[in-house]
C-alpha cells in the first residue's frame, strides 16, 4: 500500500542483530579494559564471528566504539529538516535538546554509566580525535542544511556561524551534564540545571539568531 514503510526482511534483521551484538560486546570490552587494550581479534572471538565479519560491519576500531556516529552527525540537521512551520533552526535544535533532557537520553549525557564511556574517550588520543571529527562533521552537516533551507549564497558566513553556535552550545551542555553525573550529582538535578542553562542561552542570544531559518507557514 502506498505510504507504508517496507517491513524488515529476515536477511536485514539478521544483519542488524549481528551488528548490534558485535557492537554491544565490543563496548563492554572497551569500557572494562580500555580502548587501546582490546583487539579486533578478541572482539571477533567474543562475538563468535570472524575478524573479516567485524571489519565488514565496522571498517575501523573507532567505528566500533562510535557505532552511532552517523546518527549523531545528522541529528541537529534532521531536527531542522523536520521542523514545524513557524519554527526556526534554533527552535528545532533547542527543542530537540530539551526533549533529550526530559527523556534522560544518551544525547543529553544523562544515561546511567555514560561517564565510563566518556572516560574511555578521554583516555584515548585516537578516540578524542574521532570525537572532534564527529563534532566537526555535525557542524558541517548542519551548515549544509541551513544553506539549503535558506538559499544562502556559497560565500554567506551566516549558516556556518549559526551552526557552529548551536552545535558548540550542545557540546558544552552535554559535557557539563556528563561531568556532573560522574561527580555524583543526582540526574534530576543535572536535568534541571541543563534546562536552566538552555533558558539562559536563549535569553542571552539575539532575536536575529533565534529567528534564523524560520520555516514559512506558521
From TrEMBL:
Enumerate the spans annotated as HTH tetR-type domain: 16-76
Assigned keywords, A-Z: DNA-binding, Transcription, Transcription regulation
UniProt keyword Kinase present: no
**DNA-binding feature ranges:** 39-58
The lineage, from the top, is: Bacteria, Bacillati, Actinomycetota, Actinomycetes, Kitasatosporales
- Domain of life (superkingdom): Bacteria
Would you tell me the protein name for this molecule?
Helix-turn-helix transcriptional regulator
What GO molecular function annotation could you give as one example from this UniProt entry?
A: transcription cis-regulatory region binding
Q: Does the keyword Cytoplasm apply?
A: no
**Which Gene3D superfamilies does its entry note?**
Homeodomain-like, Tetracycline Repressor, domain 2
Amino acid at each position: 500500500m502506498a505510504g507504508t514503510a517496507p517491513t524488515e526482511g529476515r536477511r536485514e534483521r539478521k544483519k542488524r542483530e549481528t551488528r548490534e551484538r558485535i557492537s554491544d560486546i565490543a563496548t563492554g570490552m572497551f569500557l572494562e579494559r580500555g580502548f587501546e587494550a582490546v583487539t579486533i581479534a578478541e572482539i571477533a572471538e567474543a562475538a563468535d564471528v570472524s575478524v573479516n565479519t567485524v571489519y565488514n560491519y565496522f571498517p575501523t576500531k573507532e567505528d566500533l566504539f562510535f557505532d552511532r556516529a552517523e546518527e549523531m552527525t545528522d541529528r541537529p540537521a534532521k531536527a531542522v529538516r523536520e521542523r514545524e512551520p513557524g519554527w526556526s533552526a534554533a527552535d528545532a535544535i533547542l527543542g530537540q535538546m530539551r526533549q533529550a533532557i526530559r527523556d534522560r537520553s544518551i544525547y543529553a549525557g544523562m544515561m546511567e554509566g555514560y561517564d565510563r564511556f566518556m572516560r574511555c574517550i578521554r583516555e584515548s588520543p585516537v578516540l578524542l580525535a574521532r570525537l572532534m571529527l564527529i563534532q566537526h562533521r555535525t557542524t558541517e552537516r548542519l551548515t549544509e542544511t541551513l544553506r539549503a533551507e535558506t538559499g544562502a549564497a556559497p560565500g554567506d558566513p551566516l549558516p556556518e556561524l549559526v551552526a557552529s553556535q548551536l552545535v558548540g552550545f550542545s557540546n558544552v551542555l552535554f559535557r557539563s551534564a556528563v561531568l556532573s553525573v560522574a561527580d555524583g550529582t543526582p540526574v534530576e538535578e543535572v536535568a534541571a540545571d541543563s534546562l536552566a542553562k538552555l533558558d539562559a542561552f536563549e535569553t542571552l542570544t539575539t532575536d536575529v539568531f533565534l529567528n534564523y531559518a524560520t520555516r514559512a507557514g506558521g
